[in-house]
Design the sequence.
């Protein structure tokens, strides 16, 4: 795995956005795998800037998001569809029809999961997958467990994750307890992965993920088996490296 330690959050965001820009320059119809959470917000801001300055053209780009809560509609301010529209899609020249976020309100969630994987396949797979990391080592909503699932599936969020995400809701009881997430196999099939982590609270999990063993209780550790991963951390998240 390649590791880049940047001076601060601003330079981390720039580093990640530059890599995405390069991928799109080399392949204008690139397929991006995107993540939500606080960490990639700065990267999205940069991508919007680059698009405004005509440094990136999103007109032929397709995107697939990692995950979505089950049970809150896309117009809800905490849905991941809303997040993506607000931070990226509404501000760039992307064809909105090419942006994909799992539908957490689908009548038949199993069919939705299968169709999502099929859609990724039919676009030729993901060229670059952006990941954050949970304090518990989750990627997407692939939570620590004794086994992990390959394809897009329904997942029960752990107490840690519900607690961490409650900062965005009025009360913890409003936080959805289930989500749709791409599986570990979907992530491992991406041609390239960049994982971003910022701040002191991520320092322990970043050093664990890099320990020389794969453990399904730290889902991000599976990335050790991927041939093209770059971990981009700021000095705080990388302080044990
Ligand atoms: P964060 O979330 O970027 O808000 O820290 C990361 C994650 O839970 O995957």
Sequence:
């Amino acid at each position: 795995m390649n590791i880049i330690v940047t001076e601060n959050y601003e330079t981390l965001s720039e580093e990640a956005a530059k890599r995405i820009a390069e991928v799109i320059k080399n392949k204008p119809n690139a397929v991006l795998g995107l993540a939500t959470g606080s960490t990639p917000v700065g990267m999205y801001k940069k991508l919007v800037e680059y698009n405004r300055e005509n440094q990136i053209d999103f007109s032929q780009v397709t995107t697939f998001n990692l995950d979505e809560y089950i049970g809150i509609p896309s117009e809800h301010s905490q849905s991941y569809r809303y997040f993506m529209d607000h931070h990226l899609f509404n501000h760039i020249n992307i064809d909105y029809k090419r942006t994909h976020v799992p539908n957490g309100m689908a009548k038949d969630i199993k069919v939705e999961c299968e169709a999502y994987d099929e859609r990724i396949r039919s676009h030729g797979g993901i060229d670059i997958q952006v990941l954050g990391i949970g304090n518990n080592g989750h990627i997407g909503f692939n939570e620590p467990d004794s086994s992990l699932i390959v394809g897009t599936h329904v997942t029960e969020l752990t107490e840690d994750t519900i607690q961490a995400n409650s900062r965005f809701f009025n009360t913890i009881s409003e936080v959805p307890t289930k989500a749709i997430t791409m599986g570990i196999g979907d992530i491992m099939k991406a041609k390239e992965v960049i994982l971003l982590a910022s701040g002191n609270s991520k320092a322990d999990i970043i050093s664990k993920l890099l320990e020389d063993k794969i453990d399904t209780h730290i889902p991000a550790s599976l990335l050790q088996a991927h041939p093209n991963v770059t971990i981009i951390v700021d000095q705080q998240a990388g302080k044990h490296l």
Remarks:
- The chain has one domain: 2-234.
- The chain has a mean pLDDT of 97.
